[in-house]
Structure formats: structure tokens, C-alpha cells
Amino acid sequence: MSPAHQPRQRRCPATSSRREDIPAPAADRHGPRIRTWLQTVSLRKGLGRPARIVVNLAGAAGAALFAHASLQFYLRTHSLIGGAFLVEQTWFVIAFLVRRRPSAVSRNPGGWLLAFGGTFAGVLFRPVGAHPHWGVAAGLGLQLAGLVVCVMSLLVLGRSFGFVAADRGLVTRGPYAVVRHPVYASYLLIQSGYLLQSISLRNAVVMVLASGCNVGRVLMEERLLTGSSGSSGYGAYRRRVRWRLIPGLW
User: Fold this and answer.
1) pLDDT digits over 189-212, tens only?
2) Are 160 and 169 in contact (CB under 8 A)?
3) Where do the domains of the chain lie, and which CATH numbers do they carry?
4) 127, β-bridge pairs
């Protein structure tokens, strides 16, 4: 449900209209390029304020369901991990309600599918398979680390929080000074921790699916931000913060 993040970027005068659609990126306007089917299909323009309100309320309602489940788990177990998940999901509820209107947002249906898969594929995990002691202990550590990274990232994002690829302003401090997409990196930590605690083929497949969707989100977000009006600021940020998700790897 991230939750999804968009690094913060300056607004441009041309985005003063109330529509959430943008022209095609400059790379698409100037010369042909090879595109996948995800890049060639576009949603209708001009979704407008009513659609934004519906999306925000739906996102907050979904996050509230997860927050309620986390609360019930915490009340039953009084565990640290339950309390951490409750804090994370509660913040997602707030973030959906207070986030600012984007100056640019993806109209690509593939981007919305990737965002949905990356955010919600984790619900397919099941506590089945092997539960080795070392995996339970290591998995708990990874999940706690992921939750800390996620909450810190959401606090830094503030009203720039988003679900699908969009431009809500450039954020460069905190976890964003280490990797460009720390919320998705936190998902990787949390889900890896769950897999170590419940090792099974099913959970491994879910892990690959969720991670693949979030990698796709990263690429689509960066394509949108690089092609938007403030691309020079984001380009400088990319040169300064080299890694997308995993420092030293990618």
C-alpha cells in the first residue's frame, strides 16, 4: 500500500489545471521507441477530482481493514511485530486521506495493475511449510527492520505519499538519501522475513510475484518522473542516490 511512494518533485506552472493527466513524456514525443504492451495502453484522460476522492477513500478503507486486523492480532498476542504492523497500517490510512494532488499521474493500466499486485500480493502468504527456528528468528528481525524503514519513509513522504506512479514532489531526505524507493525496499524486507518464517513453494511464488510487481513499479515511476516537467531535479537526484532498492546491488 504504498503502500506506494513517489519521490518529491517541484511542480511546474503548466500543471495548474485540476486534471490528473499529463502529456506523453518527452522521450515518447521525440522519435520512435520500442514499447511493451504495458506502455502502449492508456486510460482515459481527465479522471478529475471525483475520481481522486474515490481512489483516496478506497485506499484508506483498504488500509483500515488491514489496520483492524493488525489491532486484533496485537490484542491477542501483545507482540512487538503486531504493534509495529498496527502503526504502519494506521499511517497508510492517514496518508491516503491527506496526500496532495499530483501534478502528474500515470494513465497506464499496466502501472495500476503493478501497483495493486505489489501492494496486495502479500495477502496470499500463508503460514504453511517449514518453520525452522533460525528462520523464525531471522524472519522476525527482517520484518521489524522492514517496518521501521516503511514507517520512517512514510513520515518523510508526508503528503507526497502515492499508490501509483505520480509526481507529488521530490523527497530526498531520510531513507530517500539511501535508496530511491525505500517503501518498496521495506516490502522486500517484510516479505522476505515472512518467507523465512514459513518456507514453502507457495510462499516463494508469492514472494517472486510481489517483488516482480514492485520492480515494475519502480521502473514505471522513474520513467514518469524522468519525463515530467521537473525532470532535471529528478535526474540530479538519481545521480546522487545511485541505488533503487538494494544498496550495492540495484
Assistant:
1) 999 999 999 999 999 999 999 999
2) yes
3) 13-240 (1.20.120.1630)
4) none
CB 171 within 8 A of CB 204: no
Let me know: does 50 contact 19? Beta carbons within 8 Å: no
The answer to whether residues 208 and 48 touch, using CB atoms and an 8 Å cutoff, is: no
Report how far residue 154's alpha carbon sits from residue 88's, in angstroms, rounded to the nearest whole number.
9
- Find the mean pLDDT for residues 6-19: 42
CB atoms within 10 A of CB 13: 6
Reported as a single tens digit per residue, the pLDDT across 76-109 is: 888 888 888 888 888 888 888 888 888 788 888 8
Phi, psi for 95 (deg, rounded to 5): -60, -40
At 40 the pLDDT is 36
Give the separation between CA 179 and CA 194, rounded to whole angstroms: 22
For residue 191, the tally of other CB atoms under 10 A from its CB is 23
Dist CA 124 CA 65 (whole Å): 16
105, burial (CB in 10 Å: exposed 0-12, middle 13-18, buried 19+): buried
Burial 199-222 (b: 16+ CB within 10 A, else e): bbeebeebbeebbebbbbbbebbb
Most confident among 44-48, 60-64, 66-70, 199-203 (mean pLDDT):
199-203
User: How close are the terminal C-alpha atoms of the chain, in Å?
Assistant: 22
Q: Say if residue 143's pLDDT is above 60.
A: yes
Question: Is the CB of residue 3 less than 8 Å from the CB of residue 119?
Answer: yes
